[in-house]
């Protein structure tokens, strides 16, 4: 497995957006930071564009400590996330295929996960900006389903709303599964993680 990974949770900065569906990636990063035993702080390598923490995540097959990981939350708005990702990848010399982006996904039902490397951005501006900054689509995406908006609600409005009361009851399980999926990508590889967590359909 790779010696070091960069895992980024997408979202918007500040308490106003903290509970939004669009910030589910950053919620997953909070769970990962708890597992690693690190906290988020301003990172000089991101040129002021991200909060980051470091440590080892998980356990490798055979019992050795998991790989070194940099967990990061961009402090810029979603649409300009790429600068932080690119700066940290360069600072730590992490190849794009060892970058994992955790983000909300409208085209996946709430509670489901899908994992892939490469492919399109599906209209997700945070991914589009990351692809532009890295110069490649070939990074890992952990896509956390938030479902489609009801009726004729604008998707842009929908993702900037908090989860519904019913969803909030299930959200801890979704965040835990997504963190497990990231951990398995790092310790056992994308195919193994897809086999366990990639929702069929």
Question: Explain this structure to me?
Answer:
The chain has 201 residues and is an alpha/beta fold. The protein has one domain (4-197): Peptidyl-tRNA hydrolase (Rossmann fold, 3-Layer(aba) Sandwich). It contains 6 helices and 7 strands, in the order βαβββαββαβααα. It has a 7-stranded mixed sheet, sandwiched between helices. Helix 1 crosses helix 5, helix 2 (82-92) packs parallel to helix 3 and helix 5 runs antiparallel to helix 6. The two termini are 29 Å apart. The model has no long low-confidence stretch (mean pLDDT 94).
Structural class: alpha/beta
**What's the main sheet like?**
7 strands, mixed
- From the alpha-carbon coordinates, what is the Rg to the nearest angstrom? 16 Å
* Silhouette: globular
How many beta-strand runs?
A: 7
User: Low-confidence parts, pLDDT < 50 over ≥5 residues?
Assistant: none
How many domains in all? Answer: 1
Strand order of the largest sheet: 2-3-4-1-5-7-6
> What is the CATH C-level name?
Alpha Beta
Distance between the termini: 29 Å
Whole-number average pLDDT? 94
Q: Return the CATH architecture.
A: 3-Layer(aba) Sandwich
GO biological process, one term: protein quality control for misfolded or incompletely synthesized proteins
Active site: 22
Main location: cytoplasm
Subunit structure: Monomer.
């Amino acid at each position: 497995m790779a010696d070091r990974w960069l895992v980024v949770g997408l979202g918007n900065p500040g308490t106003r957006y903290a509970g939004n569906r669009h910030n589910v990636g950053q919620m997953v990063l909070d769970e990962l930071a708890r597992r690693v035993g690190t906290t988020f702080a301003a990172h000089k390598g991101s040129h002021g564009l991200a909060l980051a923490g470091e440590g080892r995540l998980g356990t490798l097959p055979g019992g050795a400590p998991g790989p070194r990981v940099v967990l990061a939350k961009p402090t810029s708005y979603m649409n300009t996330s790429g600068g932080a990702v690119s700066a940290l990848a360069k600072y730590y010399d992490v190849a794009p295929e060892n970058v994992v982006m955790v983000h909300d996904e409208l085209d996946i039902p709430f509670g489901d996960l899908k994992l892939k490397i490469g492919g399109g951005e599906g209209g997700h501006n945070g991914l589009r900006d990351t692809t532009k900054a890295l110069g490649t689509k070939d990074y890992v995406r952990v896509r956390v389903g938030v479902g489609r908006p009801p009726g004729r609600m604008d998707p842009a409005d929908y993702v900037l709303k908090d989860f519904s009361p019913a969803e909030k009851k299930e959200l801890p399980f979704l965040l835990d599964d997504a963190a497990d999926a990231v951990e398995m990508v790092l310790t056992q590889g994308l195919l193994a993680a897809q086999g366990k967590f990639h929702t069929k359909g």
